[in-house]
Each structure stands twice: as C-alpha cells, then as structure tokens.
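== Sequence, structure tokens ==
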Amino acid sequence: MNEREKNLVKIIGTILIMYLLWSGYGRYQSAVSQRTSEIEKLRGKEKQLKEKIFMGAIADGTFGEYQARSLPGNLETARSQYQQWLLELVHDKGMDDVQVDFTNSRRMGGIYQKIDFRITGATELPELIGMMHDFYAKDYLHRIRELSIQPVKTGGFSVVMNVDVISLVNAPDDLPERKEPSYRVDADAESYVAAIMNRNFYEPPNQPPRYSGGRSIEAIVGRESPTPLTFKDPEGHDVRFELAEGPQEFVRLDSRSGTLRVNSDVTQEFELLVRAIDSGYPQKTTEQTITVRVVDPPPPPVEPPPKPSFDDASQTVLTALLQAGGEWTAWMHVRTRDETLKLKIGDAFEIGTLKGTVYDVNPRYATLEIDGRRFELRPSGNLGVAAKRSEVD
C-alpha cells in the first residue's frame, strides 16, 4: 500500500468516526429531548391532579357545609320539620289569617330534593320585613322565590310568599335543627328593619357626615379657647353636634356651629368623643375621638425696634441754580420723598421742620430766610445743616 492509499484510508476512517460521533450525539439529544418532554407532561399531570385534589377539598368543605344546613334526607321528616318552623315563624311575627301549605317536591339529579311551600296571610309592613329577617337568619338552604304584597282597605297588606328549601338525599334523618343564626344576615333585626323602612326612595342612600379636621387640638390654660370642628355632610344636610364623652365641667360644644370651647385652669391632656348627626333621612351619625392638649400661653411677641425717623430738611440738598427767562431758580431735592422743589425769589417752602421763604437766588448760592434768620445755601449743601449752623452764628 503506497502513501496515497494510506492517506485515503486515514481520511475515510476519520469521516467514519465523525459520522459515528454525530449519529451518537443526535441519538443522545433525541433521548434527552424525549425525556424532558415526558418530564414536562408528568409535571403537567401532577399540577392537574393537585388542582383536582384542591378543588375536591373545596367541594368537600362546601358539601359538608351544605349538609349541615340541609333538612333531613327523609322527605316526610324534612317536610314536616320545615312546615312546623314556618308556622312558628309567621305566628311569632303576628301574621293574621295564616296558611302554610306544602305545594310540591322534586328530586334533582339524585343529589338533593327541592321542597316548595306557599304562605298566605295578612300583616303590617314592619312585621313583614322582620319576618324576612328571621327567615334569612335561619341557616337553612332555603329562599323566598316569590313575594307578592297588596294593600288592604282596612289597613296592612295581604301577603303571598312562595318558598323553596333543599334537602340533600344523603343527609341523616336525625340531623339536628339549625340553631345558630346565619352569618349572612345582620343579627340586629331592628337595624335590618330600619334600613328598609327608613329608606328614602327618591334620593340616593344618605351618607354620614365626614370629619376632615385634625386628630388633636390645643387650648390655652386659664383662657377660653374656641376651636371649630370641621364636619362636612356629603349631601349638604344640616349637622348638629353632641359631646358624647369628655369633661363636661370645662368643655362645651355648640350644637349648631360645632365650635368646641375649652376653659381649663390646669395644663393637661385628655380625649373627647364628639358626635355629628345630619338631618338626612334616615339620620346618619359620625363619631370622632379628638385629643385636647391644654398648654401654657406662648411668650408675648417681641416688638420690632422703631423705625428711625428722618427730618426731611436733613435729607434735602441744593442740587442746581438755574436761570430761565431772566429769573434764577434754586432746585432742592428732598431725598426722603424723592422730590425736587424748584423755588424762585419770594417762594415760600415747608420742608420737614423748616418753614421759610427764598430771599435771593444768584449763580453762586441761594439765600433763605427762616424765622427772621437769613443764611446762604450753596450747591450740594444740606438744608438742615445750613439752617442749624445759622442758629449758632
């Protein structure tokens, strides 16, 4: 085998090895990709199973709640028990001419049965609303499907009410009656009735006043300190004020203006509970706790030093001697007033504390006369200084 054949064999061998390596790497990559895909599928199934378990737990809890609120599974027992409760309810609320009738029952998908009742009678509106409160406060799986009320000429209303209640098929026959009221209904029957009876159907629901002031205020010891409380009513109704809690002996609250007045003889800190009541329908109330700090009076303000007073005469300077039309004029500038006086012979002047006349004006100076004294005032000369010097001379 010559050299050329050896090189050819080497090249073919190298190509074969590279092919085997590439083929093996491809199979490895394919296996890894397949394994990764299988892992992702298993993770997806795991997630779905966990979601099903979670939803099953929720459903189990919900079903447990439904079973606790259900009537007994036996239809006759459920019907008798619920009808007896309905009779007690309507009689307790003073309904007249009452009749509670079983109307129908239907089995729904092998899971529960729906039992229907019909109530007829006559009552007043507050008693009807109170009965509805007690109905929904009873924690059964029931509802008022239809309610019809008509006014009666003699007063009150005639009532027709269709009621549905559910009994789970697998609920025990000896299931105890629900005693605890439902959390879905306000336990306070009076508030429930008032919210409906006192509703103004011609306006949106009344909103309570809103407090927009500070949480604390200061008062001065030994001095009556008034502070207006900032309550605002959203509908603009009138608001009256009450002091619900606080020291009545030295705290007063104006019921109309809402001005709080504190007059304490000692420094102290205490809390007040104020109440704002609007005039809407129904009335709404807001209570606010305010901290009051009774403190010493602030120190008296320091008066600023008096501003220096200037005599206009001491700030008056002869700025020019000018001739026009054969007459000489003395120009005197009063700096405090930023004013220039143009005075001729015989003109009277009053500048600051000096009052006099111009006796003479020439190119070199002006002669002024004050209180019978004559003195010369030259250009750039100060009037006040020249007048004082004339007194000495």
